[in-house]
């Protein structure tokens, strides 16, 4: 009988892309019965004793699978795909060329995150406007634009809707949440990046993605930090 | 018949941890016949046309497996382990608790690498001494010490020599190269972190690690940037 995730527990925060990835994979693998506990970042919920007991780093996602604890989002996603391979669609194809493509795209995502979050968004979110080095911000935005152009090219090369062509894979589960956060922060994909725009629309509609959409994204507008990219 | 890596090609740079990871896994999986082309970072060899054709990011490792190109080191290592599972030791155990532990440690390595490299060593390597914010460097060293304490704890918890009690795994292939880079730059593991010190000695002796040891580490002394961290 298929596992529905009843023995699983996920601590998560709204808007956290690592959490979102794990939630997408849980849905894709039919593990929707995983218990989910939402924490509030502003209340420092991720530093609660409950979480620190399971994750000394005091971060979300914090994920318990029966007695097993796997907190790193990439680790949790890979563990779930490997352990529940027979449930839901194969998120990492077994055909060598496709497997290589999916793995490659999965592990290029951290480069996008560095250029988007570390070099731009975190600075806007944590520094006062007068503290920002405007020249540096301009350079970082140009670098992000170049990075997005690479991903636009990847979609063209894949020749379908998704990063691996016609089928949704782990590459999309990893990449989409990061892209969605950029859109939330004012990034206009069209007309510069038409494939990314179409990709964003298509993946947004996927049931696993809709079910795990960050609640506060529906309730409020994001800050338009990237509107001028 | 076992694949020995004859159709594989790896562009690499001496001292690059991501390259070292892939080289360890190639050796562990018996793929030693992979062709290896050493580039020089100072000559900007990683930006050559030859590499850019295969890797628009102009980085090493750049790795070709027959017709397939997989340049991200984590991707290459996972691809090799999955594709050549029956060759060499299993680097990702199939038993659930061990599999989870190994995957967890593998993907904690980026947190370690950030504190070690981006927040500390790259600043020493690429900035002039007068450009360094000394207060920031002090905080960076304290954060690295805390991070190392976690990994010392992981070794204690695993109960053996390696990050997974059962033996050498992908977690060690990912973690060791960065640790070795820190030791190269003056980090003294003992007596503060005895398990890490013993780990460093044990893993250094592993054939796959010996074979892929960065050449210039053998030829010259490292700088002592981290001599005062512990």
TrEMBL record, chain A:
Organism encoding this protein: Lingula anatina
GO molecular function: glutathione transferase activity; maleylacetoacetate isomerase activity
GST C-terminal domain segment(s): 95-226
Residue ranges of domain GST N-terminal in the record: 6-88
Name assigned to this protein: Glutathione S-transferase A-like
GO biological process: glutathione metabolic process; L-phenylalanine catabolic process
InterPro entries assigned: Glutathione-S-Trfase_C-like (IPR010987), Glutathione-S-Trfase_C_sf (IPR036282), Glutathione_S-Trfase (IPR040079), Glutathione_S-Trfase_N (IPR004045), GST_C (IPR004046), Thioredoxin-like_sf (IPR036249)
Gene Ontology terms: cellular component: mitochondrion
PROSITE patterns listed in its UniProt record: GST_CTER, GST_NTER
From TrEMBL, chain B:
PROSITE patterns: GST_CTER, GST_NTER
Leader peptide range in chain numbering: none
InterPro entries the UniProt entry points to: Glutathione-S-Trfase_C-like (IPR010987), Glutathione-S-Trfase_C_sf (IPR036282), Glutathione_S-Trfase (IPR040079), Glutathione_S-Trfase_N (IPR004045), GST_C (IPR004046), Thioredoxin-like_sf (IPR036249)
Domain GST C-terminal, chain residue ranges per copy: 95-226
Ranges of biased composition (kind: Basic and acidic residues): 216-230
Pfam families reported for this sequence: GST_C_3, GST_N_2
CDD domains per UniProt: GST_C_family, GST_N_family
Highest taxon in the source lineage: Eukaryota
GO BP annotation list: glutathione metabolic process; L-phenylalanine catabolic process
GO cellular component terms listed in the entry, alphabetical order: mitochondrion
GST N-terminal domain span: 6-88
PANTHER family in the record: MALEYLACETOACETATE ISOMERASE
Descriptive protein name: Glutathione S-transferase A isoform X4
